């Protein structure tokens, strides 16, 4: 992808973002821009602030200072801005967070009905379309607990897609999965990436990063330490902390 | 012991007992409905991050749970008229049962709400749902399911507590029993039968609760 600095194609920007949890400085002077269609992989040791960072983008966390702009909308603390941004941003969680008392289809149709104001029939048609997209339509009438972890995560992806978001955030989507189920979820994410979805993925799946990422960002202690294209990132990391991290993580893979 | 049992005079009053049993069911169901509404609405206030909203709910729960039901019902029936609020025995009984059951329900349901993982709530917000929808559509049902056994046993308690409403002569089973007893002097027979009827009432209630559970909370978990 050519790096044109066209503001038109800029979907997310974080400027001088600072986040504290009490006395703990969780995010330090974060500056990041993401263009339309870009795929970003965010990695780093646990507690480095990578999940916090993506959670700030859809306002699951509030920031102390700095500015976040998503799809042309500045997060100004108003409820309207929060609503508008959450409509444009889909999120997939580590623990799936499917609603246990709703069927797969109901999980997916909920937001289209309540947030986009669709009727049930229309919402369910949309839900079926995205369940087909993640190739799990045959499970539409089951409850989450009846599915494997990998299937649940694919449903969670379909549920997020039902809002037809411009951006998808993935918060360690394969960390809670048994090893044999990681691939089906990664394949779904890769196919989404191929379709041109703008994605930010917090993950330690370095194979995935190599295959789809436009940029890999390494965070530690709440700071962005290093940011590079995957080839450069994996073959010639500049910082000592990046090298240590890569040494540890690649040794396990 | 040379007491001669005579159930006949009590059986003659069977229609009266039957109607009074329906009265008890009526008080119990109306009381439960009110208790459930107070419980669900109260728990929203009880779990509010805003202290000004939370404090009165906590006060309400503590006052109701730490005073006798009999005093509460007397308060509504005898004290409120002095302030111009005059209610008939049935209305008084329903309100008293609802308030009493509601205070317990708030604390029980709160336990259920707190058992719901933060991730469920966050998933709702991430999908763009507002707070009220998140509570109503995502939190409430699994929360009620989690505490269903405690809530229903509290409601059985509420059902049996309807007998205290005899103190304001509300239309229910124990008042009828007292009436029949004072007419016939057959204390043993009357209360023997009434005890049996209460057992039947409780059993029927449990059956209804089980049906509701099967209908609404039967989704699989794990």
UniProtKB/TrEMBL annotation, chain B:
GO cellular component: ATP-binding cassette (ABC) transporter complex
Entry GO MF terms: transmembrane transporter activity
Keyword Transport belongs to the record: yes
Keyword Transmembrane helix attached: yes
InterPro entries registered for this protein in UniProt: AA_ABC_transptr_permease_3TM (IPR010065), ArtM/GltK/GlnP/TcyL/YhdX-like (IPR043429), MetI-like (IPR000515), MetI-like_sf (IPR035906)
Main location: membrane
A single GO BP: amino acid transport
Keywords tagged on the record: Cell membrane, Membrane, Plasmid, Transmembrane, Transmembrane helix, Transport
Membrane-crossing residue ranges in chain numbering: 20-45, 57-78, 146-170, 190-212
Subcellular location: Cell inner membrane; Cell membrane
Domain of life according to the entry: Bacteria
Membrane topology category: Multi-pass membrane protein
Pfam family, one: BPD_transp_1
Family as reported in the entry's similarity comment: Belongs to the binding-protein-dependent transport system permease family. HisMQ subfamily.
Designated name of the protein: Amino acid ABC transporter permease
Native source species: Shinella sumterensis
Taxon lineage: Bacteria, Pseudomonadati, Pseudomonadota, Alphaproteobacteria, Hyphomicrobiales
